[in-house]
Specification:
Helix content is 50%, strand content 12%. It is α/β, with parallel strands linked by helices.
Length: 402
């Protein structure tokens, strides 16, 4: 069977690495900016794509500048709810049936909106889209896979004045403390608020993440927050190996108990190892890859995003996914940011199929990993039943295209 884009749109899919503020519709960004008096560099989609949301960025720092604009318009409950709703709809239209939306609630927290209000607003939007879809005749009759979702909260590796009202206040209160302890404290507070939102308000907060600049801001500084998440049965993922080497991935797994790793693009970059005590760098990389495989730690791969932010990747075939595939690792394809990277799940999978000669059997496994390694908010038995339905649907779609 030839894998086509039409086939990819029809099969049930996941997106486990999906940033809310990086996936806002440009039309909505413009509308919200006008409503809330937020200044943008331009007010047409064409001009925004030319000036801000580009096809290629010089580095990760330039890529992240896009979020300065999206973040400013997401400071009200109505804006958060609208963007979450539209994000779910956009995914549903291309056959994505399970998403885990991640964002940093503390970037939206201020004196008029607590973290619980932020999470409630995002959940309302996702829930509304899900309820509309799941009420359809196809879902009710069992012919279509129902939509499900979870929310992943992101702590920040570092921050400075101007990040948000919450972070400014925290820096003022603890201005004589060492910065890394302030960062750690903010992460711990986020865990507490997220657990409360889950347990008290029933919001499907399923995971905890660490985002932001890797270099100079090690994951281990947030180990107390991750230990707290661990104790409260929050599943864990970490942005690691995106702009730093294999050591950051090892640290995320061993110090933060990561169940999944975001990006991990430099997993095999032995030349990026900095620890002088590691004398055989290639052996270190081999052992780390083996360890990840043995423990079935899933890697959230974002091909387009990596191509945009890592200048060394000149050709998609140079992406480390090829080595991940060869090593038999658990991998799932993700968009990272649908708007900032101008992509979809279908596009990400199609790029992988074309660049790495993925067979139908391999594709089925990669799609299955997305559902099996998800932080599904239901019980274990409910998740198993959901995955079984997905696989049955996938196989039925395969037969139609064979």
């Amino acid at each position: 069977m030839k894998i086509t884009k039409e086939f990819l749109r029809k099969i049930p899919k996941t997106d486990l690495h999906l940033h809310l503020d990086g996936s806002i519709r440009l039309s909505t960004l413009i509308a919200l900016a006008k409503e809330n008096d937020v200044e943008l560099p331009a007010y047409t989609e064409k001009e925004l794509k030319e000036q801000v949301f580009k096809e290629k960025y010089n580095n990760l720092g330039e890529y992240l500048q896009c979020f300065a604009y999206t973040g400013k318009v997401l400071q009200t409950e109505s804006a958060l709810e609208r963007v979450a709703y539209e994000l779910a709809v956009d995914n549903l239209e291309e056959g994505v049936r399970y998403i885990e939306v991640r964002f940093a609630p503390q970037l939206h927290q201020h004196k008029h909106m607590a973290i619980s209000s932020v999470l409630k607003a995002v959940n309302r939007g996702l829930e509304e889209a899900g309820n509309e879809f799941n009420a359809s005749k196809k879902v009710q009759s069992g012919k279509e896979i129902p939509f499900a979702y979870g929310i992943i909260v992101c702590a920040m590796r570092m921050f400075d004045y101007g990040f948000s009202e919450f972070f400014d206040a925290l820096l003022d209160v603890h201005k004589h403390s060492e910065r890394k302890w302030i960062f750690s404290l903010a992460s711990q507070e986020l865990v507490k608020a997220s657990v409360e939102a889950r347990d008290r308000f029933g919001i499907p907060v399923v995971g905890f993440d660490l985002a932001g600049q890797e270099r100079g801001f090690p994951a281990e500084d947030h180990r107390f927050a991750y230990h707290l998440a661990h104790k409260n049965f929050l599943k864990k993922t970490v942005h690691a190996g995106e702009s730093f080497g294999p050591e950051s991935i090892f640290q995320a797994i061993t110090e933060l108990h990561a169940d999944r790793i975001g990006h991990a693009v430099h997993l095999f970059s032995a030349d990026m190892i900095l620890d002088r005590d590691i004398t055989d760098k290639q052996a270190y990389v081999n052992n780390l890859s083996q360890y990840i495989g043995d423990r079935r730690i899933t890697l959230e791969v974002c091909l387009t995003s990596n191509m945009q932010t890592i200048p060394d990747i000149k050709n998609l075939k140079d992406h480390s996914f090829g080595k991940m595939k060869k090593a038999g690792l658990s991998v799932t394809f993700c968009t990272d940011n649908r708007t900032v990277s101008s992509t979809t799940v279908t596009n990400e999978i199609m790029k992988a199929v074309e660049a790495f000669d993925i067979t139908p059997k391999e594709l089925r496994n990669f799609v299955a990993y997305g559902f099996k390694r998800s932080f599904y908010p239901g019980t274990y038995l409910e998740k198993r039943a959901y995955v079984r339905r997905v696989l049955d649907c996938y196989e039925a779609t395969e037969k139609k295209f064979s």
